[in-house]
From TrEMBL:
Keywords: Cell membrane, Glycosyltransferase, Membrane, Transferase, Transmembrane, Transmembrane helix
GO terms (BP aspect): lipopolysaccharide biosynthetic process
Protein name: Dolichyl-phosphate-mannose-protein mannosyltransferase
InterPro entries: LipidA_mod_glycosyltrf_83 (IPR050297), RgtA/B/C-like (IPR038731)
One Pfam family matching this protein: PMT_2
GO MF annotations in UniProt: pentosyltransferase activity
Residue ranges of domain Glycosyltransferase RgtA/B/C/D-like in the record: 63-221
Keyword Calcium among record annotations: no
First-listed, main subcellular location of the protein, grouped into a coarse class: membrane
Transmembrane domains' residue ranges: 17-37, 81-100, 106-125, 170-193, 205-223, 243-272, 293-314, 320-342, 351-372
Protein topology in the membrane: Multi-pass membrane protein
GO cellular-component term (any): plasma membrane
Length: 502
């Protein structure tokens, strides 16, 4: 007797409801967990806020849109990180909903649910999605761009051109990898008959005009800042090392998709008994152009992004893993066939739930138990709010002025830049990255210099004394971690540079 679970029946009868439920549950998980567990922002989120506070048209870190939105979200809830975490999860919801709409247009609503469920197991959409920034904001924009690209090329919907142009312009204002992604879309259009037919109209010219208008401030900044130079090409002796780096990046992408691989293997019919009794998720035949579209944007961004990162020795895949792996779930569904058999339903549900929830358990375990295993530092356990409040309040008490600038250790300084007064951040080792403030200007307006103290006297590092001669250290301030464990307390050395007027 064939057994069909309630989940399968829901997928068949209410696919949109299933997508909304699972996407909202994952978003709620990664909204609640950092609010309860993180005492400091993960990754470079504090730096994103420090740069967003300046509202620069462009910076060393790339286009400005993500930085502006992060600062707006931070201020909207009274200078609390909840606003930024909420913004990150809204991006996740928009990403998967646009991805579902695209998958539904290609394989139908029922199999589109399976594509979304598979893509949700990609590691990039879990804990890294909390670190709002260009890589996170690019995901919904890329998903929407692909959706409207298919509507334009595959369905000949001229009304989608305007939305496509807006999304392309915003993507250019979000990530430096946008140019490569847009060229990939244009290349697919040129390489296909229906794509070339679509381009033989005035709509692409109007779209190009909208894109230029949206990205004009960023383009002007690029020209004025003279950053149109290509990164240096690797020497011949470095090619082998860069090739290994490229292989490592590709391996990382495969590892991020391990949940999809495991689910596909468990659902295979190699070792299944009574395979004919497995419930079936049916779809109408897939358009050959749609199959090419899915494979192109499932494989192309990953290969191109990893190749660029490997060639120029970048730390991560160009565009981010969340962008280049977005279509991976849909590619698996398209390759499976018109009939998808769901074998071992209970096992598949359990493995999928573990794959989605495992990063959350890893984050909890790292926060609560890693400090007891040694002196390893958990970044999100630093008391960012207490650090910011102490140094902001100390400067105001000593000088009777609001703290206007902070420098020194980049991580600690970026935490202090989140204080209620939102002081300016100066990266004193690389001042060209913070053009709104220089060392000379810092010495004139005054501020706080912080560093990690290695002794009880709080002796400043020699390089700080060279940049700030006459620095008089204060008694180091000690802060507790969220979980102290076996690691020593955080000892912060600091000094006040008084304003010249005093």
């Amino acid at each position: 007797m064939r057994f069909t679970s309630l989940v399968v029946e829901l997928i068949r009868a209410r696919p949109r409801l299933v997508v909304l439920l699972v996407v909202l549950l994952q978003a709620a998980l990664w909204l609640i967990l950092p609010v309860l567990l993180y005492r400091s922002p993960p990754g470079e989120l504090a730096t994103v806020l420090a740069f967003g506070r300046e509202y620069q048209v462009g910076t060393y870190f790339g286009p400005p849109l993500a930085f502006w939105l992060a600062d707006i979200a931070f201020r909207a809830v009274g200078n609390y990180m909840f606003g930024v975490y909420l913004l990150a999860q809204l991006c996740a919801i928009a990403t998967f909903w646009a991805f579902y709409q695209l998958a539904r247009a290609i394989v139908g609503g029922q199999q589109a649910v399976l594509a979304v469920l598979l893509s949700m197991t990609v590691v990039a959409f879990s804990s890294p999605g909390v670190e709002f920034g260009p890589l996170v904001l690019a995901r919904p924009l890329w998903a929407l761009l692909l959706l409207h690209s298919w509507q334009i090329i595959g369905q000949n919907r001229r009304s989608a051109w305007f939305a496509w142009s807006i999304e392309a312009g915003l993507l250019l204002l979000t990530t430096s990898a946008a140019i490569g992604l847009l060229l990939l879309v244009a290349g697919f259009a040129v390489a296909t008959v229906r794509g070339r037919r679509t381009l033989m109209s005035l709509d692409p010219l109007y779209a190009l005009l909208v894109i230029v208008v949206l990205a004009l401030p960023w383009l002007i900044w690029i020209v004025r800042a003279d950053v149109l130079t290509m990164p240096p090409w690797p020497a011949i002796d470095d090619l082998s090392a860069r090739a290994l780096h490229w292989g490592g990046l590709l391996g990382g992408l495969v590892l991020a998709m391990s949940g999809i691989v495991l689910l596909v293997v468990l659902n295979s019919g190699w070792f299944a008994r009574n395979a004919e009794e497995a419930p079936i998720i049916y779809r109408p035949p897939v358009d050959p152009l749609a199959r090419q579209f899915v494979y192109c944007f499932a494989i192309g961004p990953a290969l191109l992004g990893s190749l660029v990162a490997g060639l120029f020795n970048l730390e991560r895949v160009s565009g981010g893993a969340g962008v280049v792996l977005l279509m991976s779930g849909l590619a698996v569904i398209v390759a499976t066939g018109d009939l998808v058999y769901l074998r071992r339903q209970r096992l598949l549900r359990s493995v999928w739930a573990v794959a989605v929830a495992a990063p959350a358990f890893v984050a909890i375990a790292a926060t609560l138990f890693l400090p007891w295993t040694g002196s390893n530092e958990v970044q999100t356990s630093l008391p960012a709010k207490a650090i910011a409040h102490f140094f902001g309040d100390s400067f105001e008490r000593r000088t009777n002025q609001k703290l206007r600038a902070v420098t020194g250790d980049p991580q600690l300084a970026s935490f202090i830049a989140m204080d209620a007064g939102r002081p300016h951040l100066l990266l004193d080792t690389t001042p060209e990255r913070t053009p709104w403030l220089s060392v000379a200007k810092f010495n004139e307006t005054g501020g706080v210099v912080v560093w990690r103290a290695s002794d009880t006297l709080g002796t400043p590092p020699p390089e700080l004394l060279q940049r700030f001669p006459g620095l008089v250290p204060e008694v180091p301030r000690v802060f507790e971690w969220l979980v102290n464990g076996r690691q020593p307390l955080l000892r912060v050395g600091w000094a006040i540079v008084r304003p010249k007027a005093q």
